[in-house]
Amino acid sequence: MLCTTEKKVKMKETKQHFDAVVVGLGKTGISCVRYLLSKDLKIAVTDSRMDPPGLSILKTECTSVPVFLGEINAEILLSSDQIILSPGVSLNNEAVKQAIANGTPIFGDIEIFCQQAKAPIIAISGSNGKSTVTTLITEMTRQAGLKTSVGGNLGTPALDLLNEDIPDIYVLELSSFQLETTFSLNAHASVVLNISSDHMDRHTNLYEYINVKKKIYSGNGLMVINKDDDAVKAMDDNSRQSISFTLNRPEKNNFGTIIKNNEVWLCQGDNKIIRQDELGIKGEHNVANALAAIALATSMNVPFDSMIKTLKSFSGLEHRCQRVARIKKVDWFNDSKATNIGACIASIKSLCVLGKIILIAGGDSKGANLSSLTPIITKYVKHVLLLGVDAKKIANVIDSEVTYDFVNDMTEAVNTANDLAEAGEVVLLAPACASLDMYESYQERGAAFVTAINMLEAC
Questions:
Q1: Which of 285, 313, 341 is the last residue of a domain?
Q2: How far apart are CA 84 and CA 176, in angstroms?
């Protein structure tokens, strides 16, 4: 790969023409640069930030392209035959909108991947549970002996997967931001797990968000439908092959749950697969995730034995309703990945059986309507500790029956929770908000929570 001295060029200094411009660095942007360079294309990179993530990699690895920093300027976009947009950059960016008006093709890395992939794709999206189902189906197919490559919104950027040997199956986790700029997806099987209000700072309204999610069902592959979610249920297409899952008794050969001898079983039709209490992941929402993964795995003829082994052994992902500690008979759970209302509600409902909850919440609510939190908090939460830029917005939807406090940081939240919690109760970090107002990522937020808990144990 060609490597030269890095060039940072001011917008007004260039009248060059490029085969493609990558908008936005980070993991996805770097993977796009690598891929386009491998095709001997003349490219440029632009980012609104002066020091974006991934810049140091360009400096040390491959800097044969000019890098335009500090703004996404229409001039550099209009000088290109095509634009590859990173998921973090909105189509509503003014420079991007000018390029669209000019007729410049705009797409993302997933679109390029879909055009080049030589193996079937299983595609997973939804407001919550994407990473859990992506991991489950990956482990199920590998348990069955299939060579499986996984990436997209989770783990490896999609274009980097093309550097590997062709697998038996690709498993892609896809966000609404990635689906926005994808047009050629024709997955072997795909699922929208659920819909809840999310990214309303990016999408015009919930209707637009739903329509973007629906793009995962493009093509003619198997549609896996959540019958318990009205928005997803409405996406079903009678002219297509589809299969459904539900937390209730399923119809015909679909997936759901049945009760036999006072035991809850995950099943296909009347065929029992695994008892709910045998699942390594807990909570009603994870039963739905397990059923979705089973339905997807069935499309690849994965034996039930392989599915069952995976479902028993997989105990969940870090920062996703992860039990961190038990201190003085109080259980502490880290669900920092609960970055929207639906995820927060699911987390509370899955843990309420353990006892009353002290909830740590707040951050950037991304323009969401928070009112659906009210009845859940009223029913299951003893006290709420609020932090972050939208703490007051959450406070405004808390019923007067529930007490709350504002805290400045995670350490104060954990120390206050420790003072309030009584034996048999639960302290839960489920923010219902993104983390970027205070942290680099939800992982960093979760790590701060765990560190503060560890300090309690050390005292």
A1: 313
A2: 16
| SS3 category, 355 | coil
What tens digit of pLDDT does each residue of 173-219 get?
999 999 999 999 999 999 999 998 555 555 567 888 899 999 999 99
Catalytic residue among 188, 199, 285, 366: 199
pLDDT band at residue 8 using 50, 70 and 90 as cut-offs = very low
**Residue matched to tokens 């983390």:** 435
Give CA–CA dist 193/288, Å, rounded: 8
Enclosing domain of residue 357: 322-458
For 126, which DSSP code?
-
What tokens were used for 312? 């028993």
Identify whether 366 is a catalytic site residue: no
List 93, 153, 254, 340, catalytic entry: 153
Which H or E run contains 67?
A: strand 66-69
- Whole-structure pTM value: 0.81
One of 73, 93, 128, 130 is an active-site residue; which one?
A: 130
For residue 36, the domain's CATH number is 3.40.50.720
Output the six-digit token pair for 416.
């206050």
The CATH code of the domain that includes 398 is 3.90.190.20
First to last CA, the chain: 53
Same domain for 217 and 70, yes or no, is no
Inter-CA distances, 50 with 5, 9, 24, 53, 91, Å: 18, 12, 11, 10, 21
90-147 pLDDT, tens digit per residue, is 999 999 999 999 999 999 999 999 999 999 999 999 988 899 999 999 999 999 999 9
Q: Does 248 participate in catalysis according to the annotation? A: no
How far is it, in rounded angstroms, from Cα 23 to Cα 33?
A: 10
With a CB cutoff of 8 Å and minimum separation 6, the contacts of 117 are 162, 170
Ranges assigned E (strand) in 174-297: 189-192, 222-226, 242-245, 255-260, 263-268, 271-275
pLDDT (average), residues 234-248 = 97
**pLDDT confidence of residue 201:** 56
User: For the ranges 62-76, 224-238, 372-386, which has the lowest average pLDDT?
Assistant: 62-76
Mean pLDDT of the chain: 91
- For the question of residue 92 being annotated catalytic, the response is no
How many domains are there within the chain?
A: 3
Count of alpha carbons within 13 Å of 171, Cβ hemisphere only?
25
Task: Please list, in sequence order, all residues whose beta carbon lies within 8 angstroms of the beta carbon of residue 414, skipping any fewer than 6 positions away.
Answer: 360, 427, 449, 452, 453, 455, 456
Structure tokens at 414: 């954990």
- Other Cβ atoms within 10 Å of 336 Cβ, number: 28
Q: What is the per-residue pLDDT for 283? A: 78
